[in-house]
Amino acid sequence: MTICNHQPSLTSVVGHGVQRVGMANAWVDSFPRTAGRVLDEMDTILGFKLSNIIADGPNSKLNRTENSQPAVMAISVLILRILEHEFGFDIKSRVDVTLGHSLGEFSALVAGGYLRFGEALGLVRRRAEVMAHCTRHIAEKFGESYGMVALICEPAHLEGLLGTVHEFLGLRAPGLDDASHTMPPIQQVMVANINSKNQIVLSGSLERIKTLLVQLRQFGGHDPRAVRLKSDSPFHSSVMAPATGYMRNAIENVNITFPASMPCISNVSALPFQSKEDLKNLLSRQCIDTVRWWDSIRYLHQERGVRRWIGIGPGKVGRNLVGKEVGRVNTKGGGVWAVCDPREMQDIMVALEKTEEESIDGS
């Protein structure tokens, strides 16, 4: 999740694959009352002790999509509640906009006041169950392995790489001047994420992603570094169409506040949600559409003038992705933080207070 204002931006960017056994333990030890309350609420909503799986594992159980997604979302909200209740960080008065990467979009909507935690968590759990079923179904149908692979290249080559990938996938008219014209489009592979100026993520059949990489290197003039992500499911691809169908129906029975206390940026449009119907449509489409994270960060940085970014959730993935685009943010009142370790909370709060004072002095 990411929450931002013109000097601050709070980012809760966490999505698939950042879960780990014990990720709540340090928070419970440091802030037992607030953390325990959120975990108890999570268990009550879900109807089983997910908190035990988060605390003790095993990894094989936590890594199941139907467990990992609600777990990551709940821990993001847990950290948000600690900021609010233990440190008096008032989201409504100190944040201008929220943003979340993939799964993190749900916690961003909770932070922004669009969705209640309980209803958002229920959506995430059932949506994850549908996604897990989609993966099992297609693996049984085609006998292939599925997942996600990040492609990393030099920033100057990203647009060319993305264009070539689209051509090999048959997503636009061919434009290469080589033998690739005669090759059929590669099926069951999609561009799941455009994360930064040098990284995209492919989703789908791992064998077909390998085929795509061979064609990129032999015929496309690109040689990106490929990194297999911690996911056995092809998220943000057409395989997940049933999850979109589930969301379209389920979200009609959820209380949505619109307008809420601040704008929230859509993964699909890379712009603020425009209406309640727009939110329902884009949040449903997010299951199969590309996460336009790079476009979202550029929009906030270049067009809305965001200078302070606060990432909330397990790990520092969000801070790192933001930092790739906005750099060190030397402007007074600016900065990029990751709120992911209770031992760093006091220092982070002091830094945030300082940047707010600098922002006022410089305005």
UniProtKB/TrEMBL annotation:
Keyword vocabulary terms for this entry: Acyltransferase, Hydrolase, Transferase
E.C. no: 2.3.1.39
Domain annotation Malonyl-CoA:ACP transacylase (MAT): ranges: 14-345
Gene Ontology annotations of biological process type: fatty acid biosynthetic process
Cellular component GO terms held in the UniProt record: mitochondrion
Gene3D superfamilies: Malonyl-CoA ACP transacylase, ACP-binding, Malonyl-Coenzyme A Acyl Carrier Protein, domain 2
Reactions it catalyzes: holo-[ACP] + malonyl-CoA = malonyl-[ACP] + CoA
SUPFAM superfamilies membership: FabD/lysophospholipase-like, Probable ACP-binding domain of malonyl-CoA ACP transacylase
Signal peptide interval: none
Superkingdom of the organism of origin: Eukaryota
UniProt xrefs under InterPro entries: Ac_transferase_dom_sf (IPR001227), Acyl_transferase_dom (IPR014043), Acyl_Trfase/lysoPLipase (IPR016035), Mal-CoA-ACP_Trans/PKS_FabD (IPR050858), Malonyl_transacylase_ACP-bd (IPR016036)
Pfam families named in the record: Acyl_transf_1
Alphabetized GO MF terms: [acyl-carrier-protein] S-malonyltransferase activity; hydrolase activity
Name of the protein described by the UniProt record: [acyl-carrier-protein] S-malonyltransferase
Organism: Penicillium alfredii
Lineage: Eukaryota, Fungi, Dikarya, Ascomycota, Pezizomycotina
